[in-house]
Amino acid sequence: MVISKVKAFIKRDFRIEASYPVNFVMSAVTSFLPIVLFYFISKMVNPKDASLQKYGGDYFTFVIVGLAFVQYYRTALSSYTTIVRRDQMTGCLESMLCSQTSPQAVIMMSALYSMFFATIQLVVVFSGGYFFFGFDMSHMNLVATALIFVLSLFLFLSFGLISTAGIVVFKKGDPLGFLLMNTNIIVGGAFFPVEVMPTWLQKFANIVPAKYSLDALRLTIIRGYDLALVSDQAMILGLMVLIIFPLSIKMLLVAVKKAKKDGTLVQY
Amino acid sequence: MISIKNVHMRYPVPKRYREYLFHPFKKLKWVTALHEINLEIEKGERIAFLGPNGAGKTSLLKLIGGLLLPSEGTLSINGYNTYANNSVARKSVGFVMNEERSFYWRLTGIENIKFYGALDNLEGKSLNKKIDELISLVGLENAAHKRVATYSSGMKQRLAIVRGLLTDPDILILDEPTRTLDPLSAETQIDLIVKKIHTDLKKTLLIATHRLEEVSALCNRVCLIKQGKIVSNENLTTILEKYTSLGQYYRSCVLQD
Fold it and tell me: With CB atoms 3.0 to 4.6 Å apart as the test, which of A121, A160, A165, B56 could cross-link to B228 if both were Cys?
């Protein structure tokens, strides 16, 4: 039953997106463009820079991992709120809530296609880097990369659910999502190493999940580190998931129940 | 079948940003949408909910449909409380919204219904069979594979009926089913509701409407709501014995203090 619902949500959004063919193609192409941009920017960065040595010294390799995963995390964080809001405005959310699927399941499954499409974009970024710009993935430790990726994904999806709980109750504005995303991009080391920031900002980065996620992913993809060598980052991410994932589900449940009681669930 | 006891429904009035800024701890204001609602509905009834705009008709129907939860009181459907057993209670109710936009316009009618069918735990051959039956019941065979964007208002309303009947619910709620229809389409719609949905499929019908002429065609009982309270709840025949017309009944109930 769950699988047919999952398929139904993915099919729905795929068909809607594919019905706008130009936009569909553009979305895929757009994810490729930053690779070109950063390839040329990387030509200006000194490969002997101390902050890059940990990751092999090549800025392009460093940034492509940050770019690919930050795009992915952004989708995980924002897709719930975007789709829930679209369905609130079209009136489709109300119809879905009349069905035999619980409101929280409707909300959680709403983001499936976006995540599926973001996975394609991730593959496009890595393939583009590999085939056209010499991005080296030959050392990648697949098991360690997959584990860090799954932990990070759960973490950012949890943040997305918390942010959606806020939207369900407060309707407009998503200050939490905005804050989380921008903090993770700027302080988490997506486009430059955390070590180049002032000391006080580096201290602040210690509570930012992207720092651990991107650091571990770079080490497993670029340097081929195994799980034992990134166990610190994996444990911190795991601990964050253990606390934040159940909390996010609880917050969403409370928000939906409150909105149903207040009669504001489908208001926007 | 449906039992509503002392139900109250209150909505919070959203604060403006200015109020959040200057009076962050000021309590929210609440508006009472429904006040002390008591109602028993038996299987097979056809009830019209009448009342001025903002009287609380849609709120009451949404409460029965399990989309809203009462602030006070209890509401049960086939013995299941909508607060404690929301999803079980909802199984007995199909909701036909008056919001035509509640479909994905870029998808075809069939694609929309299949999506909502999956959410109703239907799948495979049983879902396809059900859809075929219902599409043919409402006469949408020729349009089923066209995009909803190309549908007329009447077609969207009929598609909404298909969606509402997918799970074969005992009760069908129709919120202003002929609101956007021309007189001929409205006639066809009324015919469909009374003959096929009520008589053939034996559904209990709860209909919110503003059109008095369709009340006598669609319903056998009238529940008049004014300012969140039920001010009259009588059989159609009794009403027509007391008053010369439904119009006179409506005016006398709505205009009295």
Answer: B56
Residue B207 resides in a domain? yes
Residue B110 belongs to some domain of the structure:
no
Residues of chain B contacting residue A261, judged by C-beta atoms under 8 Å apart: 68-69, 71
Q: Which of residues 191-220 of A touch B (CB under 8 A)?
A: none
What ipTM was predicted for this assembly?
A: 0.83
Query: Alpha-carbon distance A40 to B229, whole Å?
Result: 70
Please state the rounded mean pLDDT for residues A76-100. 85
How far is the alpha carbon of A101 from chain B, nearest alpha carbon, in Å? Answer: 6
Instruction: List the CATH number of the domain containing B202.
Output: 3.40.50.300
Chain A residues with CB inside 8 Å of B124's CB? 4
Name every chain B residue with its beta carbon within 8 A of the beta carbon of A91: 97, 99, 101-102
Q: Check CB contact under 8 Å for B12 and A100.
A: no
The CA distance from B195 to the nearest CA of chain A, in Å, is 25
* Domains of chain B: total: 1
Instruction: Provide the Cα torsion B227, B233, B239, B243; round to 10°.
Output: -30
Helix, strand, coil in percent for chain B, rounding step 5: 40, 25, 35
Average pLDDT score, chain B = 89
CA distances, B23 to each of A64, A170, A172, B18, B20 (Å): 47, 17, 19, 8, 6
Q: Which structural domain, as residue segments, surrounds residue B51?
A: 2-92+169-255
pLDDT for the residue A173: 62
A3 Cβ under 8 Å from any chain B Cβ:
no
The pair of structure tokens assigned to B154 is 């009447």
CA B249 to chain centre: 23
Kindly report the average pLDDT of chain A as a whole number: 88
Residue B46 falls within a domain, yes or no? Answer: yes
Q: Is residue B77 part of a domain?
A: yes
pLDDT band at B239 (very low <50, low <70, confident <90, very high): very high
